[in-house]
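RESIDUES AND SHAPES:
===
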Amino acid sequence: MGLAREPMKILFIGKQGTSLTGAGTYDEIVLRELRKRHEVHLLASEDDLDADWDIAHCSDLKHLPARVANRLACPLVVDVHDYYWTRYYHFLCLDFPLRFILQKYRKWHYSRLFKKISAVIVHGRFMYDAIPHPRKYLNFYFGLDYSGIGSAPWEDRENLILFVGGDYFRKGLPRLLRAMPQVLASVPDASLLVIGKDYWYARVFARHLARGLPVKFVSGLPRDEVYRTYARGRVLVLTSEIEALSLVSAEATMAGVPPILADVGGMPEVVKDRETGFIVPLADTQLLAERIVTCLTDREESERLVARGQAFFSQFTIQGMMSRLDEIYRDVVANTDSSKHRNGV
């Protein structure tokens, strides 16, 4: 079959339901675009596993059932969006014993799954080096549809700090809260809006840490509402303890909001310090506060960061992402021995 020209028969394995940001955005865009190019079927039952597919694509390793990987008779490619399972990373949170146990289990579980996976797709150089699979492909996932992301002139925005994402403690909310008093000393009307879901006990603990500070928590906003909210803010802060890449930094930048990210994982790949945003060492609360104040008060600097950031993110188009994905599919199919895959070799 001329895979470079003819549509492929693809079984797509994705998360059920809707995610507000991150890998869920990637999932929806890839599925939509694949359907324009190929014959695509979304896995609905185990009967689908016995059909004749050219390739199967799971958009997130976390959502790949072992029974599915074991039964597939076609090549299987899987996106890997995080590296947190490769070793235990300790940080402030109430459920760290559970996280420790889950990390050990996931490392064991994924190492077994990797034997059934023909190839993995990773997003960023840091991830490429971090993921221990013998066959890896690099494909940045910033081919986003920015049409629904709102924007507004500087003068119409509030002195609002945005924190977007679930899992507050992994994403460094306590560090941001520790910086807030210093921010308020320079910008008394500054406030923080935390957008994202978390477990009830994490929400209670986060609200306890935020007591006395101008912080509002919003959970469960539809994605289009999150996109419109960007137009209210003047800075996005994500001081994550561990993070692969920050897709919300791309969304915020395209909405005219400069991002401040922690110097961890693949963050420096998507934001260049003092060029397209700010990168801050995890332990430097004072510098974090200074960078936030700059974004809240220095219009010229903020607009300069945003303009350069928008030029950077504009390189990663949907067309480019999908063309690269087609290349990956063709290479995996051409270089996978189907009989070995069926036997789990």
